[in-house]
């Protein structure tokens, strides 16, 4: 194979582009990015970059380093490069790693880590060998550079390192080497050694566990190292061991615990944070609780002391911590990307014995007052390591780690933890030092979930204390107090007595509303967030106070900057969900709608802030119902236009994949808002639907085929809502819709398609009911639907929610077309009863069971083998409707009369509770 050599013209062009990339003008930068993206299509591009990095000493270091970074970012291209290109790149990177310039060596080091990850060590063993040999070098810089690269590789892909190459395992040789280097005179080398060893703990690496005792001895030896970086890695290794192999630490637990308590107070925050992670990991493992319990009296107070703001935190918070900054516009960088447009999924509530699945509460502000990074899209944070470290300092630090650990300890040990902390907490809450008070209030909030029963007797004192603290001159104290009050909102809003309401609920509500209008943005954010939590907990109990609540929230529309406005939309939408139709009062409509329509008019169709506003309006329209009609026209037309434009943009993208994929969120929330309008206004929308241009139903049919699952999910929700609210408008479009709907019913959907399948299964049932009994048009779809719904119901791996929606729809189709469905009853009877017996009584369940009973009347033999399950699902009803109850009575009596001896024999084998209830309720 002839070695690769560069073409002068190609080399010149790439070099020229790299030189231009150092220009600052935005237009130049855009063109450069485009050009660099085009280069990536050339199979030899990575070789040119490697050549510039390693073989052009006449170029400035800066230019060669940029080539090195571009090489790292395009490492994947080596997999599709011709063999001579790949060989050239590999040898060039290793030669640049020995360059005299530290900048070049650093760039080459990052390239080595990237290529070793892409190619995997098994396909580049000479690189691994090169790095390990360099660990023995007499040149300290070279030794350190090699170890630095190895550490990154061990951290990023330990499993790829834990392999066999040509009959030997490199790690069998490397682990003892790392253990020996943990004694190196240089702190940097000791730090790399301990770090590398620790990264193999979580993957259960046998090469390490052969030396586990030597490893633990090494950790104890390094525990008192004078270098904080070494101590940090020792703490990290002990945390990883506790998670992966706790039995190895238990014999030494008293020493380890004392060391970790000591390290949690280390002056170096990085060491303290790693040590604090130990308590979080310890508390999260239920099996370790007996070992942790005796340490509570030491761990609890230590964590409490870690929750005080450090000097660095305060520096970072300076803007929020002191002044009235409500009028200062937000920097766009303060606003984290939020993920909208998850779409609604149709599900059912289960009785308590069916582990009723509650929707997780909305995370408004993260558990310890931080804004959470949404990790749905990893690409959002494609930052350099240093930027990322800055980004994370705003997120995770010692204070938040300690609060999280306290939260988990509270869940694990509740009253026992409170006993230990009552004294220290009292001291902090009544301290003269505001930093101590603030940390006490944070701790009180962190313990709310786990210790609620133990704390409850103290809440009549603590809640007034917190309400009073909302007057504290320090914004950071006011904001954490809002968060903590939010954590106790469910206690404050309990309907115990008028006295409870007047002493706790109303003052909490008034206090938080005052914070919503605070002059400090951080306090506004915490107040608005906590108020939204109170709304969820109080629900309809807020209705009598709607006027003052709305008047306060409306003032915030004029006062808030960009970031808090997004939280305000959430609070208004949550309020509408909580009080429901109480919002119909014309007084409330007149207070709330002008600021919402004002915001609506200001935002362009492609403004991302329109998305949370549309979500908010969806809740408001459902709650206001007919009272929303005067505002419906412009809202409907704009949603229709957004859907139309989004579909056109997607069509262009499909024809030209070079374009960026359009954001689905606009499409999803516009569909959801139309669902809200239909739930609120029903047939009131007829003139708008008829006049829509292009017609909404034809757009909807296109959305049902959309490649992105959340769009289909919201589109099927809209089909179901249209069926319920204005079926005669939907009916003409049904043939086209049904065609798509049948295809969407998949027994084993990919995880991301589950919600779309759920909504499709649910909407079928709504449509079947609206067509009515034995409708000839619907008849053509009965068998295609049933032949897809039954396999969903019988599929052992289909999610529970999908089983439930399929069962309800089979029941409803059976209610309307019994003669077509009844012959199949024996196939699905048992699975059907199993899917629905734990669902709470509701209208959907009622119509489904009336369908099942109709099918049993039509084909009694179909239920013969599943009688136990049928009877179990009957007796699980709390209050069936009179019609359904009569059907149960008639069927059970019929079974008994048909064959008394056979019936008696069968019932005698049922569990006693079923026998008793059948006898008590139906006399059989």
TrEMBL record:
Keywords: Cytoplasm, Nucleus, Protein transport, Repeat, Transport
Membrane spanning residue stretches: none
Subcellular location: Cytoplasm; Nucleus
Domain of life: Eukaryota
GO biological process: protein import into nucleus
Chief location category: cytoplasm
HEAT repeats: 462-500
The Importin subunit beta-1/Transportin-1-like TPR repeats domain, residue ranges: 509-724
One Gene Ontology term, aspect cellular component: cytoplasm
Xref: InterPro entries: ARM-like (IPR011989), ARM-type_fold (IPR016024), Cohesin_HEAT (IPR026003), HEAT_type_2 (IPR021133), IMB1_TNPO1-like_TPR (IPR058584), Importin_beta (IPR040122)
Family membership noted in the UniProt record: Belongs to the importin beta family. Importin beta-2 subfamily.
Alphabetized PANTHER family for the sequence: IMPORTIN BETA
Name of the protein described by the UniProt record: Importin subunit beta-1/Transportin-1-like TPR repeats domain-containing protein
């Amino acid at each position: 194979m002839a070695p690769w050599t560069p073409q002068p013209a190609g080399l010149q062009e790439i070099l020229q582009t790299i030189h231009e990339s150092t220009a600052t003008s935005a237009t130049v930068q855009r063109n450069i990015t485009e050009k660099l993206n085009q280069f990536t299509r050339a199979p030899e591009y990575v070789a040119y970059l490697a050549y510039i990095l390693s073989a052009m000493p006449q170029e400035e270091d800066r230019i060669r380093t940029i080539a090195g970074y571009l090489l790292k970012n395009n490492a994947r291209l080596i997999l599709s490069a011709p063999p001579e290109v790949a060989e050239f790149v590999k040898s060039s990177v290793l030669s640049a790693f020995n360059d005299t310039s530290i900048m070049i060596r650093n760039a080459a080091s990052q390239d080595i880590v990237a290529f070793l990850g892409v190619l995997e060590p098994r396909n580049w063993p000479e690189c691994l060998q090169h790095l390990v040999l360099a660990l023995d070098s007499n040149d300290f810089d070279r030794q350190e550079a090699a170890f630095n690269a190895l550490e990154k590789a061990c951290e990023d892909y330990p499993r790829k390192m834990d392999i066999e190459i040509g009959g030997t395992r490199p790690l069998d040789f490397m682990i003892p080497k790392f253990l020996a280097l943990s004694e190196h005179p240089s702190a940097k080398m000791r730090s790399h050694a301990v770090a590398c060893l620790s990264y193999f703990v979580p993957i259960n690496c046998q090469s390490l566990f052969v030396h586990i005792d030597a490893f633990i001895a090494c950790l104890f030896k390094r525990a008192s190292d004078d270098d904080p970086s070494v101590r940090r890695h020792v703490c990290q290794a002990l945390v990883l061991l506790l998670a992966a192999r706790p039995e190895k630490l238990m014999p030494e637990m008293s020493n380890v615990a004392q060391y970790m308590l000591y390290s949690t107070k280390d002056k170096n925050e990085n060491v303290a944070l790693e040590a604090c992670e130990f308590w979080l990991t310890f508390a999260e493992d239920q099996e370790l609780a007996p070992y942790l319990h005796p340490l509570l009296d030491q761990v609890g107070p230590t964590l409490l002391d870690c929750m005080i703001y450090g000097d660095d935190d305060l520096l970072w918070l300076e803007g929020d911590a002191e002044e009235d900054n409500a009028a200062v516009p937000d920097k766009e960088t303060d606003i984290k990307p939020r993920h909208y447009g998850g779409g609604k999924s149709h599900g059912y509530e289960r009785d308590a014995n069916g582990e009723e699945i509650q929707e997780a509460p909305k995370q408004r502000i993260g558990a310890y007052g931080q804004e959470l990074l949404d990790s749905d899209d990893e690409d959002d944070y494609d930052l350099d390591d240093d930027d990322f470290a800055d980004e994370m300092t705003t997120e995770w630090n010692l204070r938040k780690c300690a609060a999280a650990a306290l939260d988990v300890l509270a869940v694990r040990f509740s009253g026992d933890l409170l006993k230990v902390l009552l004294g220290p907490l009292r001291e902090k809450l009544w301290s003269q030092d505001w930093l101590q008070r603030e940390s006490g209030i944070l701790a009180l909030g962190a313990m709310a979930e786990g210790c609620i029963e133990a704390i409850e007797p103290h809440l009549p004192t603590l809640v007034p204390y917190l309400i009073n603290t909302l007057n504290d001159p320090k914004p950071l104290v006011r904001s954490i107090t809002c968060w903590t009050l939010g954590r106790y909102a469910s206690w404050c809003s309990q309907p115990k007595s008028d006295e409870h309401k007047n002493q706790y609920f109303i003052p909490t509500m008034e206090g938080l509303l005052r914070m919503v209008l605070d002059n400090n943005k951080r306090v506004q954010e915490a107040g608005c967030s906590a108020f939204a939590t109170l709304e969820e907990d109080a629900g309809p109990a807020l209705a009598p106070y709607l006027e003052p609540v709305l008047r306060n929230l409306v003032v915030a529309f004029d006062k808030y900057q960009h970031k808090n406005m997004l939280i305000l939309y959430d609070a208004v939408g949550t309020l509408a969900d909580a009080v429901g139709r109480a919002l119909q009062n014309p007084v409330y409509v007149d207070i709330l709608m002008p600021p919402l329509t004002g915001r609506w008019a200001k935002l362009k169709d492609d403004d991302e802030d329109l998305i949370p506003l549309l979500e908010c309006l969806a809740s408001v329209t459902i709650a206001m119902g007919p009272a929303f009609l005067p505002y419906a026209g412009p809202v409907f037309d704009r949603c229709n236009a957004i859907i139309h434009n989004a579909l056109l943009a997607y069509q262009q993208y499909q024809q030209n994949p070079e374009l960026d994929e359009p954001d689905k969120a606009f499409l999803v929330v516009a569909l959801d808002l139309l669902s809200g309008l239909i739930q609120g206004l029903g047939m009131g929308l007829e003139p708008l639907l008829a006049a829509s241009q292009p017609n909404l139903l034809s757009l909807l049919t296109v959305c049902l085929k959309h490649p992105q699952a959340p769009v289909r999910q919201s589109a099927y929700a809209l089909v179901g809502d249209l069926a319920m609210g204005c079926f005669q408008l939907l009916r003409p479009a049904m043939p086209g819709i049904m065609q798509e709907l049948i295809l969407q019913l998949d027994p084993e959907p990919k995880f991301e398609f589950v919600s779309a399948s759920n909504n499709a299964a649910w909407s079928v049932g709504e449509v079947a009911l609206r067509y009515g009994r034995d409708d000839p048009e619907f008849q053509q779809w009965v068998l295609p639907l049933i032949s897809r719904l039954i396999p969903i119901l019988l599929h052992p791996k289909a999610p529970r929610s999908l089983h439930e929606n399929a069962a309800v729809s089979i029941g409803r189709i059976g209610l309307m077309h019994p003669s077509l469905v009844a012959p199949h009853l024996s196939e699905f009877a048992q699975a059907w009863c199993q899917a629905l017996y734990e669902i709470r009584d509701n209208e959907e369940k009622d119509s489904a069971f009336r369908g099942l009973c109709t099918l049993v009347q039509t084909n009694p033999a179909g239920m013969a083998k599943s009688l136990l399950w049928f009877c179990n699902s009957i007796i699980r009803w709390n209050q069936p409707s009179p019609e359904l109850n009569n059907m149960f009575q008639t069927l059970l009596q019929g079974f008994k009369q048909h064959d008394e001896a056979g019936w008696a024999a069968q019932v005698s084998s049922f569990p006693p509770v079923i026998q008793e209830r059948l006898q008590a309720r139906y006399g059989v």
